[in-house]
Amino acid sequence: MEEIVKNSIGPIGILIPMEEEIELLLGFVENKSETKIASRTFFIGDFHGRQVVLVKSGIGKVASSFTASLLIHKFNVKSILVTGIAGGIADHIKVGDIAIAVDAVQHDMDCRPLFPQFEIPLSNISFYKSDPVLTSKLETAAKKFVNTEFDNKVSLETMQQLGIELPQIHLGRLASGDQFIGTFNQWEKIRAEVMDTLFVEMEGAAVAQVCYDCGIPWCSIRTISDKADAMAHVDFNLFLNKAAKIYTAGIVKKFIELL
Ligand code: ADE
Question: For the domain 8-258, what is the CATH code?
């Protein structure tokens, strides 16, 4: 009965930009089948009794919005989770912390003077809100991961190497754009122009726009790999190789269990 109720909600799409993070998650998916479309492999299966479609989107707004559209129109997903790693922008967010999007903006959208900065032309929208129910479940899942699993899954050695402590969980504004933010000028521009940005990456706000247009709820959770500063590229690679998949798999598993 529980299975029928769960699956009547429809499949959830899980969109991850890079290979490294998808690997562990795939291990949880049962009755798996794969379909390849446009260089993307879509993994369809059951994850804790819930239908999921897992896909590596590739990096950037075009790759991710195209993938989101395929998830919706070819695989009939009824909601989308975007996950992976991100750069921390706000002062209080550190490498190893977890960021959950309350809303998302495309920081490189600028059609002034025709439209206000950040507004998606002809839509009247600058900030796309994440689904409040899914977002609150992400927060619960992240808390559960931090409180019950983090210590067992991430070794002290890795924590010391990455300079991370017990993760804090933050909710706030996500800013996405087709840029890796890794210089002082880029960092300063985002801080000055995109009010209240908590974290940056290159996909979420584009997926949010597609979901909005298609009437599909979305949510996003990311682990902070770097502080979007001059050391960002070094921290990014180290975090990606050492810790990203552990966080992603742990949190997403807890999230799916809550659905
Ligand atoms: N993803 C992870 N770190 C990032 C950064 N600094 N800029 C953009 N996307 C990122």
Answer: 3.40.50.1580
